[in-house]
Amino acid sequence: MIVDLRSDTVTKPTPGMMEAMTNAKVGDDVFGEDETINELEEKAARIFGMEAGIFCPSGTMTNQIAIKCFTQPMDELIADQTAHVYRYEGGGIAFNSGVSTRLLNGERGILSAEMIEPEINAENIHYPHTSLVVLENTVNRGGGSCYTLEQIKPIATLCKVKGLKLHLDGARIFNALIETGDKAADYGKYFDGISVCLSKGLGAPVGSVFLADKETIKYARRVRKVFGGGMRQAGFLAAAGIYALDHHVERLNIDHAHAQILASELAKCSWVASVLPVETNIIVFDTVKPATEVLQKLAGHGIKALSTAQNRIRFVLHLDIHPEQVEYVVKVLKAL
Ligand SMILES: *Cc1c(COP(=O)(O)O)cnc(C)c1O
Questions:
Q1: Stated pTM of the model
Q2: pLDDT below 50 — which residues of the chain?
């Protein structure tokens, strides 16, 4: 049996999703004529209480477009040191936007208004102008830790008072919503921009949406074109996104339950030093021996995972991991 726990990006479209894709009505989206993309953009914006949306090939592109929209060259943005926008987007903040990054040490990636406020630069020609705060929910490197909306509100208030924009890297926002019980529609009140990945836990093969007000999205269309992300008959992909929003949100609690089962099993293993608290679909644990050794053993049983540091391994649960596979992994962990 092969069990791929490397990432929630490894999922393949389900038969229902494939059918939705092949039946999609498409047109040239650079001309604004792909009705399925238009439908997806409107639907996603409505779900999050935002005015408008733009469909992009990747979450990296939605984040990079957001940063470009919300900053000017020579500005600075504030993010946690684990942030995807900083660590995993190839230096795009500096390259695409000419912006520097102030990194904070949050609690497993979770920031507070108290942490952010002293890091906002005063008006002084020596200092870069702080113009943007980026939050991630859930936090990938935090082991899927999540913000509640109550934690976000004071940050949003601070940003408003200080004249900063607030962007959400919501690659796994639905995992956070399922866990916290917060309403997606309330998010629009607190963020200037939101990125939502359709190709992570939601199981679409490609695509992310960037949500904001109409004026920002108008500018985002210009930026997307410059970044080379203007797609044509991509409604086939947008159809997968619509299907995912309709059918694959509620089921995320299954992934969370599976993560709990595996985490409690890992906690009992003598070769595991510690397991980070598990809140959603990601498990991060530290191993006694080097992670590469453990990964090799797991691979011998068909279990694929990634190491995120020398003695650290990450498991990610997703749509294509079924209960039988979870049972199998438990058996292997017990015997390892
Ligand atoms: C996966 C991910 C993204 C976007 O990644 P793409 O592979 O470019 O779609 C953005 N932020 C976080 C936290 C992610 O985990």
A1: 0.97
A2: none
- Ligand 1 neighbours, Cβ below 6 Å, are 58-60, 63, 84, 136, 140, 169, 171, 197, 199-200, 208
Q: What is the CATH number of the domain that holds 255?
A: 3.90.1150.10
Same domain, 174 and 291: no
- Distances, alpha carbon 22 to alpha carbons 11, 208, 211, 235, 242, in Å: 18, 19, 26, 10, 13
Q: Is 30 in the same domain as 166?
A: yes
Pairing of strands 282-287, 312-316: antiparallel
Could you tell me whether strands 303-304 and 3-4 are parallel, antiparallel, or unpaired per DSSP bridges?
parallel
Q: How far is the CA of 63 from the centre of ligand 1 (A)?
A: 9
Ligand 1 pocket test target in 55, 61, 80, 84 with most atoms within 8 Å of CB: 84
| 132-177: pLDDT as tens digits | 999 999 999 999 999 999 999 999 999 999 999 999 999 999 999 9
Before 9, cis peptide (omega within 30)? no
- 94 and 231, same domain (yes or no): yes
As for how many domains the chain has, the answer is: 2
Ligand 1 pocket mutation, candidates 10, 136, 197, 280, criterion most atoms within 8 A of CB:
197
Range of the domain at 134: 15-247
| Phi-psi domain of 314 (left: phi exceeds 0; alpha: psi -120 through 50; beta: other) | beta
- Nearest-CA residue for atom 3 of ligand 1: 59
